[in-house]
């Protein structure tokens, strides 16, 4: 240890010790410098200490932190959830959700809305090699709800084909039309009706429709039972 006397003492004769480490012939020595409390000399003294440490100008700005992934950029669509292995459900994805949807590695999307698919969404599908299956079901309100059984059945055949997985099912809000497709899938998975209705109501909430639940109750899955549920975590 050595004492550096390059700095003048303070006006009251006091000294503050500053430890400075430097490499010297394979071992470290500690240099103690007396730093004056005179504000006019502080900047010069700090520069001297920093040079002893092999550093740059202490008065310079700190380097910018490393970029961090912004978790807020990964926003899931409305009512997003996992249904089963390789199957997801949600409301209609928009451009704010694309970064999140991209992380799912989708092969297919089932859209249950009859309107033409938005251009921005179509471009997103093309850029990511995602196939679109569109089964247009009108979003009527009770008591004028008409759920086409044949269309639901066709959508389920796409859902059950593992070559289409990972797959996202969506309608406008991810409540009624999507809820009916998922509810009929649950029947095929041998869920009891009370569990099917509980799941449906969890997404539909105050907008739950008796007509949707009646449709799921009466839906005949016998024509789909020949399709193996090789993807399903509910397989028995």
From TrEMBL:
SUPFAM superfamilies: (Phosphotyrosine protein) phosphatases II. Its EC number is 3.6.1.52. Residues 79-230 form the Tyrosine-protein phosphatase domain. The keyword Hydrolase applies. Keywords: Hydrolase. GO terms for molecular function: inositol-1,5-bisdiphosphate-2,3,4,6-tetrakisphosphate 5-diphosphatase activity; inositol-5-diphosphate-1,2,3,4,6-pentakisphosphate diphosphatase activity; phosphatase activity. Gene3D superfamilies: Protein tyrosine phosphatase superfamily. Belongs to the protein-tyrosine phosphatase family. Atypical dual-specificity phosphatase Siw14-like subfamily. This is diphosphoinositol-polyphosphate diphosphatase. It comes from Linum tenue.
